[in-house]
Amino acid sequence: MPENQIELFQERTDLTKGRHIYTVSEITSDIKTTLKNTYSDVWVEGEITNFRVYPSGHFYFSLKDKDALLGAVMFRAAERDIKFKIEDGLSVICFGKIDVYAPRGEYKLITERIEPKGIGSLQLALEQLKKKLEKEGLFSAQHKRPIPYLPSRIGIVTSISGAAIKDILKVLERRFSGANIIINSVLVQGEGAKEEISHAIKDLNNFNESLPLQEKIEVLIVGRGGGSFEDLWAFNEEIVARSIYNSEIPVISAVGHERDWTIADLVSDMRAATPSSAAEMVMPKKEDLSRQLNDLAADLKRSFLDNALTFQERMDNYLYRLTLNTGHLIELKEKELDINAKKLLILNPVLLIQQYKLKITDLFKQACLRIQHFIELREAEFKAATGKLFSLSPLNILNRGYSITFKMPEEMILKDTKPLAEGTIIKTKVYEGEILSKVMEVK
Predict the structure, then answer these.
(1) Which residue in 399, 413, 406 sits closest to 435, CA to CA?
(2) 292 in Cβ contact with 169 (< 8 Å)
(3) How far is the C-alpha of 146 from the C-alpha of 137, rounded, in Å?
């Protein structure tokens, strides 16, 4: 062989010396290590797709852009702080680490945090919940109930140590002291606040059911003082919104300041800009009431005087017209009386009365004769019937010498001797009297 060919084959033989053949697991392990070292704490931007929740509670989804797709998982423990609803099509920013799932050779983003892109998570959660509750009708004006005027019993759900309760009590005392106040103290921010607020509303409603009508709570004030968007978040929770919606007692929400709006404000029967405003809405000033009563009394007095004058004028008018009409009516009746008197003289009812008397006398005589004749006919018929009855009477037969014999003691009439035996007692009835006998012999 040529020399150059020998060198060529020698070189290829050297390339195969000492080679290392990787297993699939080794390659996967190296990739996993490289990815973990390179992408241990990364932020990834993308659009949610193929989102699904497994029975374990873990979230599985993918992040995509126009050119690529990245699988992702968020384990249940990391989901607790998520306020908004994750769904397909949502643009998000995820924080986590890239890891490899060796059995499938897949790499995924193990997501620890997730935020909506371009809007805060709380703001997105608020908008999502607003749409959901509005669709269900929780904000409907038809559900809103009027707030009672001058209630004697007021329920308050807020923190007993906060500034809101002090402002409310101060305003109520200043405007109209004497109302019964029932306070259910709750946390108004932080962990457990939403549950305490919800339960407090339900508890006051349940307590109200046990009270007689005159002692029932007439209105609830639910709220707190000012704070950051996050501080007020408990009043944006769905559990609180539904408790307000289901309350049998009308609810005034009083959360934060005038610029602050929460879900509780939208669901409540009335929204107050501040806790102090809520107290002013629910309780009018005693001075205003007194002034209104004085104004009403003055208006009533003026109205009474005006009506009294009007009434007097109308009565005078009616009396004048009544006097004229009465005089005219008397004249008409006098003329009618005169005409009727003349007709009465012409008809002279005395003559008619005499004629009717004669006619009645004659009819009476005829009736007496007919009655007498009727009685005589009935007497003759009665005597004939009596004679027939007498001739057929058993007593009349006995009078001719006949008798009737009875078997004793059943008093059975004997028609032959069959029922008799020696020693039988018999009774014989004759026309006058009865004879008891004992049978000596039957033939």
Answers:
(1) 406
(2) no
(3) 18
Which residues are CB-neighbours of 168 under 8 A, at least 6 positions away?
156, 158, 221, 254, 275, 276, 278, 279
Q: Which residue has the higher pLDDT, 286 or 93?
A: 93
Q: What six digits make up the tokens of 8?
A: 């060529």
pLDDT at 349 over 70: no
Query: Cβ distance 420 to 426 under 8 Å?
Result: yes
pTM over 0.90? The answer is no
Asked whether residue 345 is domain-assigned, the answer is no
| Of 245, 266, 265, 240, nearest in space to 253 by CA | 265
In a domain, residue 95? The reply is yes
Tell me: do 94 and 180 sit in the same domain.
no
138 & 251 share domain: yes
Q: How many domains does the chain have?
A: 3
**66 plus 164 within the same structural domain:** no
* pLDDT at residue 117 is higher than 70: yes
Q: Which of these, 123, 114, 120, 127, lies nearest to 46 by C-alpha position?
A: 114
Cα–Cα distance measured from residue 167 to residue 38, given in angstroms and rounded to the nearest whole number: 57
Kindly report the average pLDDT of the chain as a whole number: 83
- The answer as to whether 150 is a domain residue is yes
Place of tokens 């241990």: 40
Q: Is the pLDDT of residue 72 over 80?
A: yes
SS3 label, residue 85: coil
Average pLDDT over residues 218-242: 92
User: Both 113 and 130 in a single domain?
Assistant: no
Find the mean pLDDT for residues 338-344. 76
Structure confidence at residue 171 as a pLDDT band (50, 70, 90): very high
Structure tokens at 283: 């309780």
Given a cut of 70, whether residue 289 has pLDDT beyond it is no
Domain that holds residue 74: 20-118
In a domain, 140, yes or no: yes
DSSP string covering 254-309: EESSTT---HHHHHSSEE-SSHHHHHHHHS--HHHHHHHHHHHHHHHHHHHHHHHH
Strand ranges (DSSP E) for 279-419?
404-407, 412-413
- Report the alpha-carbon distance of residue 267 to residue 255 in Å, rounded: 13
Here the CATH number for the domain that contains residue 98 is 2.40.50.140
- Give yes or no for a contact between 90 and 83, defined as CB atoms under 8 angstroms apart: no
Give the relative orientation of helices 121-136 and 238-245 as an angle to the nearest 10 degrees: 30
Average the pLDDT over 94-113 and give the result: 86
